[in-house]
Amino acid sequence: QRTKSPKAGGGETAFVALGNGKAEHLDSSFSLEITSLPPEEEVVPGNGLAYLGTSMLLDFQNNLMGAAAGEKIAKDNEEAAEPNGIEVRRVASGPGDYFARLCLRPKPLAKDATAVNGEGTGGSGSGSATDLSPLEITQQFYTDILGMRVVANDIDMLCLRYQDGGFGVSTTLVFSTEEDQSSSSREDDDELVMGSMLDHLVIGTPSVQDAADALKETEQGREAIFMEPTSMFGTTILGVMDPNGYKIYLAEV
Q: What is the pTM of this model?
């Protein structure tokens, strides 16, 4: 736990870092911000957050050669369940990718529209049509607007990352339409319900003003901005909204 501070309305927030375990390297670790709601507010699970993925190599922190040799981890006890009902999976990763994946659900197409192989077809009657699937719409935003790169994708999944060597650690942002995601059963699959389990993502950038200027060069970028560069929390942040409705803050680091 890095910091802990009171929130307006009676809640509390804490930053929990997952990295190489050394305090002097916390700035290059992935930080999970955990915020408690005021007692009068009810937690709404929603179905947007599918799972958090931590590295299988965490089981081999002191025996990476054993991991390379295919050794199995002997576990005496079952891992404790995440207390808020969020699914946490052990996933494949490279050395140093301790927090390896954040998997979200894209906004489904309207019931009267479908997209097949990138070509939209209207539903019955006077339904509308789209040229792109939910994953293609998402990919276009994160690659064209936020500069991420696609590392893997198929009909049900999109995996995005920034180039290695940037700020923080290498974390893969995954969007999945797979029906077996545990969170999907909580709400109607035909609707993306944000709930209160995931508030926002944060991406580090050397200059928020430069990022804002670059975004405003395109119509899609201009429309994505919901908060202009603002001094907050000891830094400057810019708020953008992705096409699924997820909030992203660009923070100057």
A: 0.77
